[in-house]
Structures are given as structure tokens and as C-alpha cells.
Amino acid sequence: MTTPHYIDGRWVEGQGHDCISVHEPALGLPFAELMSASSAQVDQAVAAARRALPAWKQTSAAERAALLRGFAEQLGARREDLIALQMRNNGKPRHEAEIDLDDAVATFAYYADLAEQLPAKNRDVPLAVPGFTARTRLEPVGVVGLIVPWNFPLVTSAWKLAPALAAGCTVVLKPSEVTPLIEQAYGQIAEQLGLPAGVLNIVNGKAETGAALSGHNGLDKLSFTGSNGVGSQVMRASAVQCRPVTLELGGKSAIVVFDDCDVDQAVEWIVAGITWNAGQMCSATSRLLVQDGIADALLARLQDALETIQVGNPLTEDVQMGPLTSQAQWLKVAGYFATAREEGLKCLAGGKALDRDGWFVSPTLYVDVPQSSRLWVEEIFGPVLCARRFSSEQQAIAQANDSRFGLVATVCSADLERAERVADALEVGHVWINSVQAVFVETSWGGTKGSGIGRELGPWGLSAYQSVKHVTRCLE
Ligand code: NAD
């Protein structure tokens, strides 16, 4: 049993109702257990964050920047342990776990730089009317609750923690019950760096703990990353308090391939967009739109590529795709395979759970999927790609935009003018042109429509934790 909760600068045992088993998905076996935090412990964490706020928001931007750099360095110092834990608990292949770690390090380093630039943002505002002066102050929003999922545990929490601390907020973080050990590193680093007690609190638990935090009347803001179902409950709880939320939700993103593309190159981008993290990505490009002229050649090549992917335990050599991270996710994806059979979809690759220990499924391709199919419309969160054909640019744009989600999209074309035009027409938060899904801390993350509210990363990620104040003085 581990001691998982970091409240007011101390590690404490959980007093909640839920016993959480932490699993190794490649084996389907548990390797750790912990008790969830109780509602009373969530209260203690929020109260500690409230007590810590006045002093923390008075720290200089330079002091906060130095601490954020400390987080980046200490993540680096724990590199091997954190990579190993992600491989074991998430089932990520090594190179993916390494990229997640690098992303978290880059995020803390980036917000350290932005924190240092903060004083220059508090500036005089030129007024057209004489007799007055005005100045802007960017103040921290206050005490923020941060709730995150399991698919990129180090990363989704870094995208919230680093800008919140940079802005001068104090936080209560609730990691996912599927991956509750990885983010303990943030508490250990806070302790090691001497972050004042209460500035960063971590409470672990399932829905009950999450609901205790998201409905807490001591928060000034809630930032949530997760499913649309839970996101809507979190938004409702915040509506009761009339308090701001950031929501990073699901997706059903399109990859649009025009017939002037190199087939092999396009297949590489398509495969990466649906098999990275075994397809458990909010940004998975799970709807392939391929132009008529290239469709037959591309789908045949894609079938080959998906069938030859090495699926297995990430702790063994040469594995390209690991298992699904939880049994619940494995059952959910298997349910979509059953739906595909009921709907009579044409399967070119995969379409089944693997008959072995652990929560493995095969990379899957369905073709000529009707727009009414549940597999075309719903977020599956697994390595399941659905394909349709198109003839014209307008048709591609219309089909890509025909979704209740709007997170990301990819456009592949040798005609760069066309690619840019299509990118501009897509109703999403981020578009890649002729690229894998490279995410840079300087650019924003977040979606339109049902994919969420607000943006993370870049200066927008910092603004999410800032409140704008103006001070106007009459000179007469
Ligand atoms: P989830 O919604 O089930 O859980 C997310 C978090 O909410 C977990 O910490 C969970 O314990 C907590 N929670 C559960 N019930 C709650 C409640 N009633 N009140 C408050 N908190 C509660 O999502 P998941 O299965 O962990 O993650 C997968 C989802 O996350 C997918 O839909 C995916 O698209 C989305 N996601 C989005 C982004 C993005 O940036 N847009 C990034 C990663 C994942």
C-alpha cells in the first residue's frame, strides 16, 4: 500500500472509501494498491491551498521561475524511473514514454521563461481621454482544482501545473485512478525544492474524490481534462458556483489525404495518428478521408502497415504498440468491434482483441464506413481507424467538419496552397500539414465545439490562470 496524498506539505494515507488497484496492462495484473482520499481530505487540501495563496502570489516572478526550472531539472533527474513507470502502468513503448517525459520538462522550462516576462505585462494603458491614467495588472486566478486523465499522465498535469504555478495560483491536483503513481513525482519534487506547504496538493481517487474537488466551493477555477461525460458534470458543478472552467475533452479527428500525396509518406502519418499510445489520444486522427484517385493504393498499403505493427509488452524489444491501459478501455474497444460486426462494416485489418494475457487489441481499419455509423461518429479511444473516400476539396472539408467534436485535424497534400486553404476551413483547434502530430509548447492546445472550452500551452495556457485587473486614477 503506498502513501499517495500530498496535502499541506505532508504525505498522508487515504481515508476514502475506494481501494485503488494499479495495474500493469501488458499482464492484466495489479502491482500496487492505495486508498482514495476522502471528501474531508479534499477539504483539507483546498483549505491548505487557500492558506498558502496570499504568500505565494506575493512571490516574485523570478522566484516562481526558479522553482519551475527546479521542476524541469528534477523531472530530468528522475527520467529513468518515470519512463519505466509509464511503460509499466500505461503500457507505453519506451520511445513514447521518453517523449512524454521530454514534453513535461519542456513545459516547466517554457513557463519558467513566461513567468520571468510577467512584470513587463503589468503596464500603463494609453487613454484617449486626458485627466486619467490606467494600468493593467495580471493577477493569479486564485486556488485552482486540476483534474486529469490517464493517457498522458505526466503531460496533461504539466500543462496545467506549470502555468498555474507560474501565474501565482495554488493548486489541488487529482490524477486519474488508473495512473495514480506517476504524478506523485510532482509532490516529491515540490517537497525537495522546498515549495511552501499548500502551494501544490495532490489527492488521489476515483469519481467520488473528483466530484468532491470539482464541486468544492473553495475553488476559484477548475481545469479538467477527460471525457465529455465527466466534463459535462464538472461544468455543471462549476455552474452552481458560477466559477470559470477550462475543459479539454474528447475528439474524433479527421486526417484528409489528397491524391497528389506520396502513398508511403501518407501511410506513415496515418499510422502514427491512430496507433501512438495505442490510439488512446484525444487527438487520434481516427477518421481517414482519402481522395478517390489514391484510395485503392493507399488503403492496400495501409492494411499492410497496420497488420505488420509489432504489438506486445513494451518491456520487450522492438514493440511498436503496447496494450490498452485499462481493462475498462479494452472492454470498451472490444464493444466497438462487436458494433462494427453488427453494422456490417468492412474490416481490412484487425477488428479483434488479441487472445493472450493483458489488454491487447490489434490495429484496426474499417473502410467505406457510413457517416451514420457509431464508429464514424463516436470517440473510441483505441487503435481503430475508419475510412471514407471523397472526390472534391469541398466534400473533404464538409465531411471533416461534420462532427460534434473539433479538436485537431491533419491535411496531407503536395499542393501547399490547397493544404493551407483546407487547414483554414477546418473547425478545429489545431491542424497539422504534412506532419506527424508534433506538439510544441509555444503553440496552443484545445478544441472547438464539443472538444472543450479554453486553451492550454503557449501564452494562452498562462492566461487561463490569470485574472485581468485595471487600476484607473483620476489626475485632477
Ligand atoms: P474520465 O473523464 O473518465 O476521467 C478524467 C478524470 O476525471 C479522472 O481523474 C477521473 O477520476 C475524474 N472523474 C471521474 N468522474 C468524475 C466526477 N464525477 N467528477 C469529477 N471528476 C471525475 O476520462 P479518462 O478515461 O481518464 O480519459 C479519457 C478521456 O480524456 C478521453 O475522452 C480523451 O479524449 C480525453 N482527453 C482529452 C485531452 C485533451 O487535451 N482534449 C487530453 C487527454 C485526454
Automatic annotation (TrEMBL):
PANTHER family linked to this entry: ALDEHYDE DEHYDROGENASE, ALDEHYDE DEHYDROGENASE-RELATED
GO molecular function: betaine-aldehyde dehydrogenase (NAD+) activity
Family membership noted in the UniProt record: Belongs to the aldehyde dehydrogenase family.
Name of the protein in its database record: Betaine aldehyde dehydrogenase, chloroplastic
Active-site residues per Swiss-Prot or TrEMBL entry: 248
Enzyme class per UniProt: oxidoreductase
CDD domains on file: ALDH_F10_BADH
InterPro entries cross-referenced by the UniProt entry: Ald_DH/histidinol_DH, Ald_DH_C, Ald_DH_CS_GLU, Ald_DH_N, Aldehyde_DH_dom
